[in-house]
Amino acid sequence: MSETGGDENRNQNEVRVPLAHRVPDLGGLELLLAVARHGSMGRAARELGITQPAASSRIRSMERQLGVALVDRSPRGSRLTDAGALVTDWARRVVEAAEAFDVGAQALRGRRDSRLRVAASMTIAEYLLPGWLIALRAERPGTAVSLLAGNSAMVARRLLAGEADVGFVEGLSVPEGLDGTVIGHDRLVVVAGPSHAWARRRAPLAAAELAAAPLILRERGSGTRQVLDSALSAHGGLAEPLLELASTTAVKAAAVSGAGPAVLSELAVREELASRRLVEVAVEAIRLRRDLRAVWPTSHRPTGPARDLLTLTRRGRPTE
User: Fold this and answer.
1) CA pair distance 129, 197, nearest whole angstrom
2) How far apart are CA 48 and CA 152, in angstroms?
3) At what angle do helices 248-256 and 266-274 cross, to 10 degrees?
């Protein structure tokens, strides 16, 4: 075996002792600095809130670890050895760097705790979140909130990509890769403008009749569409939409204009039903109810402002 090959084998077989085993801990270095300032083991111990025997024991432990004497002890006090003075100078730089690290970490925590990124499906974003965010602002006035509104599939993508801290969806189940909790319930209603023939019906629609009718619908991937697809799957499935729109507001506006019937959250059409700009159409034999959920990535339960928002949603849950 060549000499070079032997050196390589020795290097590969060397076990590196971790730095934490070779360098005194921060507490020991802070104690050494206090001894240097006060010239007394007792006063240094009192400054750090420990007993003098504990301080002496810690200095002896550092001396054994480093293999040099750091402090000369006498009835007149404690003074640094030449090696102790040199180690103290190094210790000061280490402690200053640790303090800078702590300041930076606190700043990161502060920025984290002063921002909240929310992703929500359209109905929750438009009709529930504004009230929750107003309440959150009263409790956390310094929190900057950003809201990403879309369908339930978008919410899942944003959360899994780390682009949101908490999400809200309206579908039948928790999207894959997420955990969640039910925060309320919602009912879908079939609505039409007052001039539409369905608005004048006395008998409820049959489920098959609703399934066969061209409707103004939300896009695939939305919680509303998911619930409707499921409810009508046993009745022939949905017909080709009359219009397919990407927001609850757009669907509602089209229905109010008389373009055709729509299926929307009861939360979204309360005012229009009360003012008779839309009429609810009864449907028999199908269940159009759904859970409203807060969701987050699996094993990453919300903290900070996201946790506070989740608490607020539970104070006034929409119920069936």
Assistant:
1) 35
2) 54
3) 30
Query: Is residue 105 pLDDT above 80, yes or no?
Result: no
Contacts of 80 (CB under 8 A, 6+ apart): 35, 36, 70, 71, 72, 88
Angle, helices 304-313/82-113, rounded to nearest 10 degrees:
30
- Cα within 13 Å of Cα(87), Cβ side: 26
The number of angstroms, rounded, from the C-alpha of 301 to the middle of its chain's C-alpha atoms is 7
Contact 179, 298 (CB under 8 A): yes
CATH number at residue 177: 3.40.190.290
Kind of pairing, strands 144-150 and 115-121? Answer: parallel
Task: Note the pLDDT tens digit of each residue in 161-219.
Answer: 999 999 999 888 888 999 999 999 999 999 999 999 999 999 999 999 999 999 999 99
Residues 57 and 99 grouped into a single domain: yes
pLDDT score of 130 more than 80:
yes
Q: What percent of the chain has pLDDT over 90?
A: 51
Q: Do residues 125 and 107 both lie within one domain? A: no
Handedness of CA 292, 295, 299, 303 (dihedral sign): negative
| Shared domain check, 221 and 157 | yes
Same domain, 61 and 173: no
Q: Other C-beta atoms within 10 Å of 278: how many?
A: 25
Dump the DSSP string for 141-162: TT-EEEEEEE-HHHHHHHHHTT
Contact between 192 and 252 under an 8 Å Cβ cutoff? The reply is no
* Cross-strand partners of 116: 145
Residue ranges making up the domain that contains 61: 3-111
Q: Are 225 and 217 in contact (CB under 8 A)?
A: yes
